Amino acid sequence: MALRDDGAAALDWVASYLERVRELPALAQVAPGDVRAALPASAPEHGEEFPAVLQDLDEILLPGITNWQSPRFFAYFSTTGSEPAILADLLAAGLNQVGILWRASPALQELEEVTLAWLAELLGLPDGWHGHLEQGASVATLGALAAAREAKPGHVLASEHAHSSVERACRLLGLELRKVPVDDEFRLRPEALELEGASAVVATVGTTSTTSVDPVAAVVERCASAGVWVHVDAAYAGSAMVCPELRWAFEGIEGVDSLVVNPHKWLLVTQGCSAFWTQRPEELRAAFSLVPEYLRTSDEVVSFSEYSVELGRGFRALKLWTVLRCYGREGLQEAIRKSIALAALFEGWVRDEPGWELCAPRPFSVVCFRREGSDQENEVLLERVNATGEAFLSGTRLNGRFVLRLATGNARQTEDDVGAAWEVLQRCAR
Amino acid sequence: MALRDDGAAALDWVASYLERVRELPALAQVAPGDVRAALPASAPEHGEEFPAVLQDLDEILLPGITNWQSPRFFAYFSTTGSEPAILADLLAAGLNQVGILWRASPALQELEEVTLAWLAELLGLPDGWHGHLEQGASVATLGALAAAREAKPGHVLASEHAHSSVERACRLLGLELRKVPVDDEFRLRPEALELEGASAVVATVGTTSTTSVDPVAAVVERCASAGVWVHVDAAYAGSAMVCPELRWAFEGIEGVDSLVVNPHKWLLVTQGCSAFWTQRPEELRAAFSLVPEYLRTSDEVVSFSEYSVELGRGFRALKLWTVLRCYGREGLQEAIRKSIALAALFEGWVRDEPGWELCAPRPFSVVCFRREGSDQENEVLLERVNATGEAFLSGTRLNGRFVLRLATGNARQTEDDVGAAWEVLQRCAR
Predict the structure, then answer these.
(1) Burial of A378 (0-12, 13-18, 19+ CB in 10 A)
(2) Per DSSP, what are the bridge partners of residue B213?
(3) Adjacency order of strands within the sheet including B274-278
(4) How sure is the predictor about A292, in pLDDT bands with cuts at 50, 70 and 90?
(5) Among B300, B290, B238, B296, which residue's Cα sits nearest to residue B267?
(6) Please, which residues bridge with residue B38 across strands?
(7) Which of A218, B8, B311, B409 has most Cβ atoms within 10 angstroms of its Cβ?
(8) Strand, helix or coil at A25?
(9) CB contact, 8 Å: A4 with chain B?
(10) Stretch A400-420: mean pLDDT, rounded?
């Protein structure tokens, strides 16, 4: 295989894709099974040339791609695989590092330490926390709760708006999860925490449905005296802490035991980059550490694999480092502020338009809203919008009612993109 | 950022790296802290140009890279990030898919289904198993044992040569692990299984220390009547089943409950691609499935996120598909057979040379051997070899004795590379 020639074709494919992604349907317009049916039943007997792969990528796979890179993608959380991150993924693939222990890739481990310290400083976290990268927040939260259980077994508390990964981690760990009620702005009510016999509280900074912010300082205060582990899930909103004016959401963060923030959500990094910190690395290590004979060395260095479900870790730090380098603090702040300004713009349009209503406060880049009418009318409206391919939004339920969500955050998004979403919403509502 | 220009530089970096990787030290020749000390303490305030990143990659990071892509890398398991896989990683980064549920990326989910069926056929597995990709075998084994616990709680049995991820998963799941003794060829002794009250047995096809093969058929036979889940960890050797002459190692596989094979180990795929199959998907789903409101849709499709710790999954299938396409069955068989031939060649040299001894049978591509003398002398020998940078080997302990391991498997390896390793071993032993 001619890496240079085939690589040039692959690079051109990616560049062209990003240039035209706005024109592609935001949500894939295929039916279940369409992609599968277009693929052969078996692998080829003999190797094929790489251009054949690119051709099938265009003809078979691309119609089945929901374009997360499209600025018309407003569902879930809007993400950006930025150019520096994409190229860092190429470099990481070329190096193919497997960080099972320090000597297996000193650069991987030490770059991960350094970039996590850089990111901690950018987000206003205290010095000296243990930080490493996980593939995603689900695995990070599993690790946090395993460490909490190690420190003190018991039940776990989280608001009814906490992410489903908390419930999944509890199920795996055999811990009871008790859901804590929220106030009228979807924030955990700290006075409702039943701390006796508890192992951990998970507070969310930026819940999935509404991006509400649990009161971390109050949770920390109550948990400190009870000896209960506080884990903060800031998978989405944590990235916004690069902007000092948003740090109110991290008030009390210096007192938490562990924290997860996903740079792959809102900090321009491609999928598979979740930052995990803890002030109590010994409990985390106690939950995971096992060094079998085939990995023993004389190196006096603790490996990240002793703090994590994973043994072999990829060179994820390379993309985080590349993004922090290529954007700098200033560039990251600009991206966050732009997303929030676009969400505020859309929020204003909804507020001012008769027949529409806002359904939750909007602290960051997600607007929850609905059209006057029944849940079913709103569900039909959402499906109709998404079927145009012109914009992709998702929905949720708040206080039993179905609502629409519009998430900004794609770095390529402009006012025109948000305006187009509003236009298609109004058109489909008529 | 000019993706095309910067991308051309990144691509050239990767191509040049692979061209010169044989000349780089196989094991990074740095001391702990060297890389960290060369990096600034904080992220930059303003964004930098991408070429500055490439320059630091060369000057700061590369000396701290252990070159897993080097054909002189013989440690752990020798892997290959092949050119098709590298370019597929670039494409996947450009698309930045997040497969949280079917509609979020129909192509991701359906390609994953299809490539897992392709791979199952290539490895001689029965039709119709549920298959999906995980980031690594540790997470896959965690899933398998969670499903086993769901089906029937109890203790877990595995040989003392099973991978440390089994013990880690048991610790997370709160399951007792009982180690089963092995025979004189490091294979689990099925008659020693205490099945009463057991949840699962983990049988390993290709253990980490010696690549020994537990007798799957005998384990399956004993477990079937006892209703005990059989999970097969074939993370390393499973890829070799593309060659029919090696399928003796999978005898009885049709009766197992779950199986993990890592294409990122020995099937030319870059890091982060572990294939997981189960015959009992309902138990797996029961262990994990949670569908929160913000992910409910009208699509009548089950998403892979209901079978896994992860919620958001990357487009890992793209690299597996690209590799299967570009190599075909024939190319994959050729790569496996070449690795084994090189290991056999080295094994012969050791056998024929006075003062050296073989320490375990060699079913695949890993040779366990030692120099006559004490453990300490062998440990010093290993460190001396690795300090040359000319080859990188790892060690383990068998029956209490320290032994060296040489693993072939890098697709760029030749007889000359294995000869160079033998030469440096003999030189350092003198």
Answers:
(1) buried
(2) B205
(3) B130-134, B274-278, B258-261, B229-233, B198-204, B155-159, B177-180
(4) confident
(5) B238
(6) none
(7) B409
(8) coil
(9) yes
(10) 97
Instruction: Give me B313's structure tokens.
Output: 């999954």
Mean pLDDT of the A115-136 span: 97
Interchain proximity A84–B1, CB inside 8 Å: yes
The C-alpha of A69 sits at a distance from chain B's nearest C-alpha, in angstroms, of 7
Longest dimension (CA), chain B: 71
Distance from C-alpha of A354 to C-alpha of B182, rounded to nearest angstrom = 75
For residue B1, the model assigns a pLDDT of 63
Q: How confident is the model at residue A293 (pLDDT cuts 50, 70, 90)?
A: confident
- Check residue B295 and give its pLDDT: 73
A4 neighbourhood in chain B, CB within 8 Å:
11-12, 15
User: Token pair for residue B401?
Assistant: 């004795």
* Partners of residue A407 in chain B, C-beta under 8 Å: none
Residues B148-207 have pLDDT tens digits of 999 999 999 999 999 999 999 999 999 999 999 999 999 999 999 999 999 999 999 999
Contacts of B96 (CB under 8 A, 6+ apart): A68, A69, A79, A80, A81, A86, A270, A271
Flag if B32 and A97 touch (Cβ within 8 Å): no
Q: Name residues 6-45 of chain A within 8 A of B (Cβ).
A: 6-8, 10-15, 17-18, 27-28, 30, 32-36, 39, 41-45
Low-confidence ranges of chain B (pLDDT < 50): none
Are the C-beta atoms of A177 and A149 separated by less than 8 Å? no
Q: Mean per-residue pLDDT for A246-275? A: 98
CB-CB under 8 Å, A44 with B329: yes
Partnered with residue B129 across adjacent β-strands are none
CB-nearest partner of A96 from B60, B270, B325 = B270
Residues of A in contact with B27 (CB under 8 A): 103
Q: Considering only CB atoms, which chain A residues are within 8 Å of B11?
A: 3-4, 7-8, 11, 90
pLDDT in tens, A1-43: 689 999 999 999 999 999 999 999 999 999 999 999 999 999 9
Question: Does the CB of A360 have a partner CB in chain B at under 8 Å?
Answer: no
Chain A, chain B: beta-carbon pairs less than 8 Å apart: 431
User: How far, in Å, CA of A286 to CA of A280, rounded?
Assistant: 10
Q: Rounded to whole angstroms, how far apart are CA atoms A385 and A22?
A: 16
Q: Find chain B residues with C-beta within 8 A of A8's C-beta.
A: 8, 11
User: Domains, chain A, ranges and CATH?
Assistant: 86-324 (3.40.640.10)
Give A297's pLDDT tier (boundaries 50, 70, 90). confident
Mean pLDDT of A201-214: 98
Is A287 in the B-facing interface, judged by CB distances under 8 Å? yes
Which pLDDT score, from 0 to 100, does residue A301 have?
A: 82
For residue B304, what pLDDT is reported?
Answer: 87
Integer angstrom CA distances of residue B127 from A39, A41, B116, B256, B269: 17, 12, 11, 13, 23
On whether the CB atoms of residues A252 and A197 are closer than 8 A, the answer is no
Backbone angles phi and psi of A301, in degrees to 5: -135, 135
pLDDT value of position A1: 63
Chain B residues in contact with A173 (beta carbon < 8 A): 172-174
Residues 255-274 on B with a CB inside 8 Å of A are 270-272
